[in-house]
Amino acid sequence: MLRTLQVVDNKLVESNAYNANIFVYVSPDEAERRYLIENLKIDEHTLNSSLDPDEPSRLEFEPEHLAMIFKRPKHYAPHDEFLFKVLSVGAFIFADRVVIVIADDVPLFDGKIFNKVNSLPEISLKLIFRSILHFIEHLRGINRISNELEQQVNVALENRYLLNMFTLEKSLVYYLNAIHSNSVLISKLKTYAAKIGFTQENIEFLDDMSIENNQCLAQTEIFSQVLSSMMDARASIISNNLNIRIKALTILTIAIMLPTFVVSLFSMNVRIPLSSHHNAFWIIAFLAFMSSVVLAIMWWRKKW
Q1: Residue 304: pLDDT above 70?
Q2: What are the tens digits of pLDDT across the range 225-235?
């Protein structure tokens, strides 16, 4: 699927293919791939890397364009079951156009940072910056979900909530690798700023991006370490909750068993004490009741 835009008065607006200078290819079909490879001279391996979520971020210089691969978080869906995934995005900067290739249809130009665009290279920088902000937003969501799951783990006996937390921990590992990969890309962009042709304003924006990305990386590391260090404790909580329930059920079973034993003892078909006593029923009932009382006192004294 192809989406075309144009920079008009420093703003991005939808446009037709003839006037557009920004081309967004979402999961390109075979014909679009052939056009990108044969007409625009985009390297086939780099094109495939733009659609591969496991591909690391990188910067490549081609004869007619600049190729960038960077990472951004994928939109979370309920069927993902607490697994936050990562996407690769390819940005190919030509003299007169920017070609963006991505596997999923996600809003790329949302946010106030795209309210003003001065040049085509600046668009690629703002796309990377928007992905950093997107990672930060997802980290806040992961933190909220983790707190809610922690409360469930404290009272639950099931492994379901614990497995959900393991999935969140796995997501943070993916995010950590992706954000670190973007950090390497930003460093290379700063190194080759003069060769790329970035203005002084672009270089200053790169510095801001680097600071924001490093903060995002540090925040991800903290969340990952905290979640990882607490997993054993939360697993112990589930095991302890199970032991408490089993203990309570065991004591309840004993409390029911003792009166039953007393009544069964005096119900045997042999000669037993009180067999001829006219108040035998009430005496046996009293003994059965007292057995439960004795157990309750022992439970309270020994703090079972």
Answers
A1: no
A2: 888 777 666 66
Q: How far apart are CA 252 and CA 44, in angstroms?
A: 70
Owning domain of residue 262: 242-301
Task: Sort residue 176 into left (φ over 0), alpha (ψ -120 to 50) or beta.
Answer: alpha
Indicate if 174 and 268 belong to the same structural domain. Answer: no
How far is 25 from 127, CA to CA, in rounded Å? Answer: 15
CATH label of the domain that carries residue 113: 3.30.460.20
Predicted confidence (pLDDT) per residue in 239-252, tens digit = 777 777 787 777 77
**61 and 153 part of one domain:** yes
Expressed in angstroms, the distance from the first to the final Cα of the chain is 67
**Could you tell me the CA-to-CA distances from 154 to 163, 239, 273 in Å, in that order?**
14, 10, 52
- When divided into structural domains, the chain yields a total of 2
| Top mean-pLDDT range of 104-108, 120-124, 209-213 | 209-213
- Final residue of a structural domain among 241, 257, 282: 241
Contact by Cβ (8 Å): 181, 131? no
Q: Are residues 118 and 218 in the same domain?
A: yes
Residue 109 has what DSSP assignment?
S
Quick one: angle between helices 160-191 and 120-155, nearest 10? 160
